[in-house]
Design a protein that fits this description.
Oligomer: single chain
CATH topology of the largest domain: Actin-binding Protein, T-fimbrin, domain 1
Number of helices: 16
InterPro entries: CH_dom, CH_dom_sf, EB1_C, EB1_C_sf, MAPRE
Keywords: Cell cycle, Cell division, Coiled coil, Cytoplasm, Cytoskeleton, Microtubule, Mitosis
Protein name: Microtubule-associated protein RP/EB family member 1C
Helix content: 55-70%
Pfam families: CH (PF00307), EB1 (PF03271)
Family: Belongs to the MAPRE family.
Order of helices and strands: HHHHHHHHHHHHHHHH
Strand content: under 5%
Length: about 375
């Protein structure tokens, strides 16, 4: 399986943080104590430089990054390297720069799996991590804190010195064993000579840690629980993607030129872009909609009720104003029934007659009536 396509249930994600830290420190000659110290992104860049020498522009890497925008620059360098090498791996920068241990541990577990898939777990002795860090910003300060190589060299020299000792003592012990064997043959033919092991006398036994034995039933229940959790995570991710797509569609609709300045759209955007879940956000959105509705009501003309229109017709009929009666007749056609129109004029059909004759005479001949 390719390291770029490993799933969350792969064995790579079960590597402990202590093993990850030991691997990073021994590979890059660093002195990291916590896995969240890799949140800057510089360690990941140098690991890619380790497995792909010359691909990473180390002069752009900042080992002294303290702010989020400086860390983002490191991850941009890393993403450019991924794109150049055609590595299909999404980097969740917003999570990694927060310094949460779990997010950074998962990403470093993936990095270890990727590096091991390329070099097979061997150490590239031709790579000098301290020298490569010299070109990076803050790399010299990191090199000052790096562990010294003297103990490793001392251990290597002691191992080399111990090799001739084993080879030189081998023939001597063989001579001693042969002499003992010959003397014992003369004394007793049934005596058996057991050769002395050189490795058992020179190297102390390595204590092995006790491995806890998990019962089969418990292991099976744990596997089922892991499977259920994986299915639950998959369902949650699908649900998250579904609702995110809906919100994205709403956002695109609100950004259209026809609706961008509408108060209702402004209220929806207020809720969408709220940084925190607070009742004040909903109150602000409701205030925008309420003010918009009040403006709409204030600009609309006041509708006439049948009772009020009847009273206006009676007053105009008493004043005998033909122009006013014509305007009121048009309104009465839409509001009053024929019977109420006649009753509003004192039981006569004068208003109906005016209404029928006005269209024939035209607007300019109203006074002729």
């Amino acid at each position: 399986m390719s390291a770029t396509n490993i799933g969350m249930m792969d064995s790579a994600y079960f590597v402990g943080r202590n093993e990850i830290l030991q691997w990073i420190n021994s590979t890059l000659q660093l002195n990291l104590v916590k896995v969240e110290e890799t949140c800057k992104g510089a360690v990941q860049c140098q690991l890619m430089d380790w497995v792909h020498p010359g691909v990473v522009p180390m002069h752009k890497v900042n080992f002294d990054a303290k702010n989020e925008y400086e860390m983002i620059q490191n991850y941009k360098v890393l993403q450019d390297v991924f794109n150049k090498l055609k590595i299909d791996k999404h980097i969740e920068v917003n999570k990694l720069i927060k310094g949460r241990p779990l997010d950074n541990l998962e990403f470093m577990q993936w990095m270890k799996r990727y590096c091991d898939s390329l070099i097979g777990g061997f150490i590239n002795n031709s790579y000098n991590p301290i020298e490569r860090r010299e070109a990076s910003k803050g790399g010299k300060d990191v090199n000052k804190k790096a562990p010294s190589l003297a103990p490793a060299a001392a251990v290597g020299s002691s191992n080399k010195a111990s090799l001739p000792l084993k080879t030189s003592t081998g023939p001597k012990r063989a001579e001693i064993n042969s002499s003992v064997a010959s003397s014992s043959r003369g004394a007793s033919k049934s005596a058996k000579v057991h050769p002395v092991s050189c490795s058992s006398t020179l190297s102390p036994p390595i204590p092995s840690e006790a491995v806890p034995v998990v019962p089969a039933a418990q292991a099976e229940s744990l596997r089922e629980e892991i499977t259920e959790l994986k299915l639950s995570v998959d369902n949650l991710e699908k649900e998250r993607d579904f609702y995110f797509a809906k919100l994205r569609d709403i956002e695109i609709l609100c950004e259209s030129s026809e609706l961008a300045n509408h108060p209702v759209v402004k209220a929806v955007q207020t809720i969408l872009y709220a940084a925190e879940d607070s009742p004040a956000v909903m109150m602000q959105a409701k205030t925008l909609i309420s003010s918009f509705l009040q403006e709409q009501v204030s600009t609309q003309p006041i509708s006439r009720t049948p009772e009020g229109l009847e009273e206006e017709i009676r007053k105009a009929h008493k004043r005998k104003s033909p122009a006013e009666l014509t305007d009121l007749s048009d309104a009465a056609v839409a509001v009053l029934s024929p019977r109420r129109r006649r009753s509003s004029c004192g039981g006569s059909d004068a208003l109906a007659e005016i209404h029928t004759r006005v269209p024939e005479c035209g607007a300019g001949s109203v006074e002729a009536l």
